[in-house]
């Protein structure tokens, strides 16, 4: 009789409520904003030539494109501000301190995740209740890029707006050599979000398949499924990112 491999032995799982509703709402609204801002931003940077036999005054698609871009930017800002607020009042997995590499253990965890996800030198998944340390660090960098995109975008928008908020960022124009220079960096930072999205989607499906903890569905319902007895003995895994939350 063949003995099943340790990795194929059944586990008794527990449901752990990780991602609260405000975090999930922020995530999907943020994803939608990034999609709209990226598409409209590329259209603004390189508008296609649309030939029409009608009067030019009736063809206002580019104006609507700019309006959608600017309106979505405001939604993006308020959604981002709300997430910062929730980092102070949310549960332990949404805590702002998780995003800052303040402890040596976090750097060790980043190294371990790199060995599994990037270098493929370790084939034992590192299970995390919330995000792993590398994900938290990546999101912190993304937050910094968020700030730059918001500030640079509204700095360029200030020339065509009488509102007080965009004019808070006009100091960036001389710092980057004027409107043209700042527009170049604003466009370049957009590619960060494109590349991040591709990697993010890949890793979500990868971890969902390898770890089997419901990573993909957790951002819809908030729950993850983790073995009650912790990581399997001898499989080299360890729990990261705080203590388990309330059980079902």
Description:
- It contains 7 helices and 2 strands, in the order βαααααααβ.
- The protein is mostly helical and 248 residues long.
- The chain has a single domain, classed as Transmembrane di-heme cytochromes, Chain C (Fumarate Reductase Cytochrome B subunit, Up-down Bundle), CATH 1.20.950.
- Strands 1-2 form a two-stranded antiparallel ribbon.
- The radius of gyration is 22 Å and the shape is elongated.
- Residues 231-248 have low confidence and may be disordered.
The assigned CATH architecture is Up-down Bundle
Largest sheet, described in full? 2 strands, antiparallel
Side-by-side strand order of the widest sheet? 1-2
Shape: elongated
Helix content: 55-70%
The poorly predicted ranges are 231-248
Number of helices: 7
CATH topological fold name? Fumarate Reductase Cytochrome B subunit
Strand segment count: 2
What can be said about this structure in brief?
The chain is mainly α and 248 residues long. The chain is built from 7 helices and 2 strands, in the order βαααααααβ. Helices cover 55% and strands 4% of the residues.
Strand-helix topology:
Layout: E1 13-17, H1 21-45, H2 61-89, H3 104-117, H4 133-157, H5 172-175, H6 179-211, H7 215-221, E2 223-227
Antiparallel strand pairs: 1-2
Helix pairs in contact: 1-2, 1-6, 2-4, 3-4, 4-6
Supply the key terms.
single chain, mainly alpha, disordered C terminus, about 250 residues, 7 helices, elongated, Fumarate Reductase Cytochrome B subunit
């Amino acid at each position: 009789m063949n003995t099943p491999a340790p990795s194929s032995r059944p586990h008794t799982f527990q449901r752990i409520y990780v991602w609260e509703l405000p975090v999930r709402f922020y995530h999907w609204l943020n994803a939608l904003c990034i999609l709209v801002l990226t598409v409209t931003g590329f259209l603004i940077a390189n508008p296609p030539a649309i030939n029409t036999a009608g009067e030019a005054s009736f063809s206002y698609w580019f104006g609507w494109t700019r309006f959608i871009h600017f309106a979505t930017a405001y939604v993006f800002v308020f959604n981002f501000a709300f997430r910062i607020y929730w980092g102070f009042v949310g549960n332990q997995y949404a805590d702002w301190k998780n995003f800052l590499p303040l402890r040596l253990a976090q750097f060790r965890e980043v190294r371990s995740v790199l060995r599994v996800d990037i270098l493929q030198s370790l084939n034992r998944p590192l299970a995390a209740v919330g995000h792993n340390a590398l994900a938290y660090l990546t999101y912190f960098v993304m937050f910094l890029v968020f700030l730059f995109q918001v500030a640079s975008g509204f700095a360029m928008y200030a020339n065509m707006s009488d509102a007080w908020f965009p004019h808070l960022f006009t100091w960036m124009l001389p710092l980057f050599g004027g409107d043209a220079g700042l527009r170049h960096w604003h466009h370049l930072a957009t590619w960060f979000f494109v590349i991040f999205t591709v990697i993010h989607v890949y890793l979500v499906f990868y971890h969902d398949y390898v770890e089997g903890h419901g990573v993909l569905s957790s951002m819809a319902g908030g729950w993850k499924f983790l073995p009650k007895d912790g990581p399997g003995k001898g499989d080299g895994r360890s729990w990261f990112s705080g203590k388990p939350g309330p059980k079902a």
